[in-house]
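Reply to dn_fold:

You asked what the input looked like. This is it:
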Amino acid sequence: MSVSRSDRLEPPVVPSGDRPRGFFLRIYRSIFRHSLQDTPRNRSLVVFMNFFLHFHAVKVRRRAMAFRQTFYLGGLTAAAFGLLTASGLLLMLYYHPSVPRAYADMKDLAYVVPMGMFIRNFHRWTAHIMVALAFLHMLRVFYAGAYRPPREFNWVIGIMLLMGTLLLSYTGYLLPWDQLSYWGVTVGTNILKSVPVVGDKIQFLLLGGRGVGPNALIRFYVLHCVFLPALLVGGIGVHIWRIRKDGGLYLSERKQKEGEAADTATDAVEGRVEP
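and this is what came back:
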């Protein structure tokens, strides 16, 4: 059976007066490839077709998003890491990882660079806050039982991220190159040296010698500014992806049943329950 030209589906013709609006609408639909109608299918397409939302779970329980459920500790820790990255990039513009310049650069930040002292103190205190938030986040996950199956792998990733956070804080401790940082790293690496079999080798690898000197400074700088941040970014991505694959944020069986009942009642009131 042949189909005449008049029976074929043709793309709608946008009137000349509406062409700017149609142009921007096409751009919008090329970015957000889904309908605006609120249906379960379109809610899924929002996640599947949008790169920036792809880590997000398709369905999230309202109870899981409550403040008292997570205290937003994971998100606050990630936000602190973002602030540290931004302030650290600003500090890198004025810092040279060399023994003759490192301490002088700290003085320039304090007394010469506009808002230099504020940026340095902001970076320092945000680092302390990030360490505290990471510890609190791990404690909440442990006491809530969110490390249980099938989330064991994500619990291990969380421990690795905590260790990376501590190492990131410790490697930044040497960079001001003052007496406090010098002796702090000296004591810390001497403690590391006491580890049986591999302690002496790890200390030599970190310091580039037997004592804290220029080699140690450049090594700690590279670890602090390049290697550890890259590992944390990758680890955070895997951590969020595993949350999505494990079914979203953890809820106990009792809270999950209460959340399902509450979601069903809310959907019924809003008319979103499908027959």
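The radius of gyration is 26 Å.
Hope that clears it up.
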